[in-house]
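Data availability (excerpt). The following record was deposited with the supplementary files.
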Amino acid sequence: MKTTVTGLPSKTISVEYYAPHDLSSLRFADDLGDPLGDHASCADVIYIAYLLAYRGGYTELFDDVQRLIRARLLRLQQSEGDNFGTWGITGDYFGKGTTIDVFCLIASTLSEIYRTFAYESSEKIYYNLYFSKELPSVTFNAYRDEKQHLEILLNCSKDIYIRIPEWCPIESLSLVDSENKVVPYSIEDEFLIIKAENALNKKLRLSYILPKNVTTETTWNSDISYSIDWLGDDIIGYKRI
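Predicted structure:
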């Protein structure tokens, strides 16, 4: 846990989770002398943080997992051409690439996270990351505009525990049904709890504001700085400064 929270961000990855292919000995550099970015290294960090959150009880790390998936992996996945859907080693701070072992590792990591980020017991349903997922007892449909939205359709008498990110403005939380009527909920620790009697066979929508933020990142060797625009835990734009 200490390595993940304090060691990795200060020594090997940036706040935005740029991770270099090389550390102590530079072997593969771009034209400016910066190490090539390695998305597989990001996926390794994701999986360590996810295991600490899901199995180790350090649930605050779910925020890091989701930010890394959204801001780094989903944003920098190949979105066109013959290599659609792949990742690789990149020669640019925000670059895309295709490398078979990198692609395979990221795909397997995301598959394992998808399998377990939402789950149910005999009495409760837990939802930890804001991605769409269908379980035997409930369907979650997550989508975004200026807000995070989560549509919920429950078909079994189980209470729902939805993790709220630490950065979420609590006062912006809204839970309504299909007729836009307010649905009651409670907050316990990091979870928003919906009782089964308030959700069974109803289409609910949970929403909250995605706060805007700006950070600055500087490349490892060339000292080129970027201004990065955030909406919640997702990057929406950047520019060189």
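Summary of structural features: The first helix runs from residue 2 to 11.
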